[in-house]
Write a structure and sequence with these properties.
The protein has 357 residues and is mainly alpha-helical. The chain has 15 helices and eight strands. It folds into three domains: 51 residues; 108 residues, Tyrosine recombinase, N-terminal domain (DNA polymerase, domain 1, Orthogonal Bundle); 167 residues, Intergrase catalytic core (hpI Integrase, Chain A), CATH 1.10.443.10.
Amino acid sequence: MSVHIDNRTGKWFSMVYYDDAYGNRKQKCKRGFKTKRQALDWESEFLKTDSGESDMLYGSFVEQYMNAIGPHLKEDTLVTKNNIFKHHILPYFGKRKLNEIEPIDVANWQKEIMKKSRANGKPLSSVYLKTIHNQLSASFNFAVRFYHLPKNPAAIAGNMGKEGGKEMLFWTKDEYTRFSHAIMDKPMSYYAFEMLYWTGMREGELLALTPDDLNFEAKTVKISKTYQKLNGKDLITTPKTANSNRTVTMPDFLCEEMKEYLQFLNGIKGDERIFPVSKHFLLHEMKRGSALAGVKRIRIHDIRHSHVSLLIDMGFTPVAIASRVGHKSIDITFRYAHLFPSVQGELASKLNSVKEY
């Protein structure tokens, strides 16, 4: 028997031998059980999980699922994923057997999740509801692939929430100019928003910039990383997508402004952050500048939309725009389709000219 009592502590422990995915013989020991039954139950559950069968508790499966995918995820993504399982999924399904969760169970779970509210009392956003469901569905897809689960009950039940977020807003060039003049009293704020508006970079990409990323001879800025604060610490990671790794050309005036700003920083090292502030700082300055300039309030990310709108107005193609701003695919750029000038009249005219009578 692999379950024993520890005479020193008076508690039970289980010693299990198993073969890992590479055929290597391994040993797993779990201590601290108050009763023999608890130790036996843990052992039984562990062996089910190790066997790759779906006859196990969903909570045990999620532990294996996260161990498998965790090394392939960025730290911030992993934290978000863990929080969703901890607060929204495991309290409902953790003690259910994986292969006994049915579509109706998922549908009932959705009803409960949609009743939840945020700390401010407002309901969870539609986008976040969809994200929560997608995490549940992804776990079931993993179980279908590796744990012989016959079907994905979350996929059958259908999603909750929807894609897309708030309305896509943007500033005109005149509105941005009024805003930028209003924040000139704080150099860091002014230069930060100049980079955002005239390059279309994301705020995390801006906050990760270092002097080494700026090439004033080529008049370019290299975007190869992103910044965020996670669990109270600064974190620099790879960009959002592979296409986000890019080199963006800067207009002459922006190059001169950034030269001035680096001189203002006086002695900054090549690998130090040019804008050593947080997203909260940018948000505060956005609110302040909007109020002073008398322009409509938009989100910081909407400045990126403003840059795209500017490029469309200047006549650039969707392909060129997608490359500049690092869209994952041109389909994302086409979400701005309503801003592109209509060519239907021009098409009709050209078709008339080529018809032979």
